[in-house]
What we know:
The protein is an alpha/beta fold. It has a single domain (4-140), classed as Secreted effector protein pipB2 fold, CATH 3.30.2450. Helix content is 22%, strand content 32%. A 7-stranded mixed beta sheet has the order 1-7-6-5-4-3-2. Helix 1 (43-63) runs antiparallel to helix 2 (125-140). The radius of gyration is 18 Å and the shape is globular. The protein starts with a strand and ends in a 28-residue tail after the last helix. The mean pLDDT is 87.
Amino acid sequence: xxxxxxxxxxxxxxxxxxxxxxxxxxxxxxxxxxxxxxxxxxxxxxxxxxxxxxxxxxxxxxxxxxxxxxxxxxxxxxxxxxxxxxxxxxxxxxxxxxxxxxxxxxxxxxxxxxxxxxxxxxxxxxxxxxxxxxxxxxxxxxxxxxxxxxxxxxxxxxxxxxxxxxxx
Length: 168
């Protein structure tokens, strides 16, 4: 039976990785008090989440202007131990005008006939802004990209088909 966990409000939210570049596992993690929920995500999901939140915050600033919220220092490191509850299949985001909170809803990756487990993280706009900047930094922190072929360069070297005249 599928479960739904709500962290409302989440006191901490972050995206982080475990492992060396090229072998990193990406996580979405949020906490409320002593309860920490970690979920495995893909690098592209982290990037798309940052882009979607960036657009949402811009839209909210126009539609629902508020007094400037004081920026808060947020520790964006993953909390240990990092044990994923599940791998995320779909992510949704939304806004509740009444509470002035943004919600991130993560659905478990399951087969067609199964009901997914769900985790909802309710966060402030300031938390979203911190998450956006941090998520972009985490995604960019991977392996450098070859300027000739666009593929990642490993620490052990890189075979570039474009430099060898064998572009595929």
